[in-house]
Amino acid sequence: MDRDEDNLKGSLSERLGSIRHKIVNRDVAVFSFFLILSFFLWFLNALGKDMTGTISFPAHYINISRDRALVSDLPDRISLTVRGAGYSILKHKLISNKPPLQIDLGKVNHRVIRDDQRYEYYILTFALREDFRRRLREEFEIMAVTPDTIHFAFEMIASKSVPVKPDVEAVTQKQYMIYGLITSNPDSVVISGPATVVDTIEAVSTKHWKIDQISATTTVSLQLEAVRTVDFSEKKVEVTIPVEQFTEAVREVPVTVINRPSDGTIRLFPERIKIYCNVALRDYNRFMASSIEAVTDMIDVDIRNTEKLEISLRNTPSYVSSLRFAPAEVEYIFEKN
User: Fold this and answer.
1) For 7-16, 178-187, 277-286, which range has the lowest pLDDT when averaged over its residues?
2) Element (H, E) at 321
């Protein structure tokens, strides 16, 4: 009997606890609802009143003089500290794609800092606040503008023609070679920009390009490497890499002695050397008929103390590669008259 009474009391206690918990949760929910509603109504009421806030806008500059080049970095954003209706300020803060604040460099009242080859100016941005307000079409009172001063500098524009240098790294297949020079079309461009910059540029290069296992003449369109504040008459050029199949050419030529002693005779051992080189197939016969020479110069040779004479080549063709010869030295006998 006592056990049943204890079970009954426990069950009643649990039910009462559950009821109290539900009442407390309901009261919390009601309180939270009215708290949020009160805050929302207060927020709406506050947005209808004037308030102060800071809004950042992108900056856009127009009417830059055509005969001058801008050589300074201009701020890309302008911050306005404004006073006005709260909902209007909030709207601009929430908009991600804000309209840019346009600054007309041809019309603003600017002040010259120095006037020579470089023209430096500054604008007090607070003087632009009414123009900013009209462009935003809002009943804002602009209290401050950041930055408060915009510095900008111009230089007179200069132009000249400079050569193009292809920046190409080409690796050919076996038995193939780069035949001549890698060229561009056009081979020069006209550059325009600040005189102090243009005067330092002797050539412009293409963007780097690499090609492997090339086996035929190849032409590719490459962009020119940009130079800050400088414009090019062409943005791209056609670069040609000439490729030819090559063979190894071997040619035997006699050694000629120059500045030989006048009081005797020089006999060489051997009298002829072999010249080896890589040459394009189209130039093989041309090389074999060329006027390449092997010579040894005895003008400074001490006959008593020198056992061998060094060989050098003259009239070497420009179209061959990997040029070498053997032997590099020859023995000799001097026979006095």
Assistant:
1) 7-16
2) strand 320-326
DSSP-derived secondary structure for 124-174: EGGGGHHHHHHHHTS--EEEEEESSEEEEEEEEEEEEEEEEE--EEEEEPT
pLDDT tens readout for residues 121-171? 788 888 888 888 777 766 677 888 889 888 877 777 889 999 999 999 999
Q: Nearest CA to 133 among 174, 102, 166? A: 102
User: Is 330 in contact with 308 (CB distance < 8 Å)?
Assistant: yes
- Sign of the alpha-carbon torsion through 41, 47, 52, 54: positive
pLDDT tens per residue across span 55-72 = 888 888 887 777 777 777
Give pLDDT tens digits for 208-265.
999 999 999 999 999 999 998 899 999 999 999 999 999 999 999 999 999 988 888 8
Contact indicator for 230, 191 with CB cutoff of 8 Å? yes
Please provide the CATH number assigned to the domain covering 247-336. 2.170.120.30
pTM: 0.60
Q: What is the spatial distance between Cα 253 and Cα 285, in angstroms, rounded to a whole number? A: 15
State which H helix or E strand residue 111 sits in.
strand 111-115
Q: Which residues pair with 53 in a beta bridge?
A: 82
> Which amino acid is present at 316?
T
**Domain assignments of the chain as residue spans, ordered by start:** 50-147, 157-241, 247-336
Bridge partners of residue 330, in order along the sequence = 309
Task: Please tell me the predicted confidence (pLDDT) of residue 196.
Answer: 82
Backbone angles phi, psi at 219, to 5 degrees: -120, 135
CATH entry, 157-241, from 3.30.565.10, 3.10.290.10, 2.30.29.150, 2.170.120.40: 2.170.120.40
Instruction: Collect all residues with Cβ–Cβ distance below 8 Å to 67 and sequence separation of at least 6.
Output: 156, 157
The answer on pLDDT for 37 being more than 60 is: no
- Give the C-alpha separation, 251 to 277, whole Å: 9
Can you give the length of the chain in residues? 337
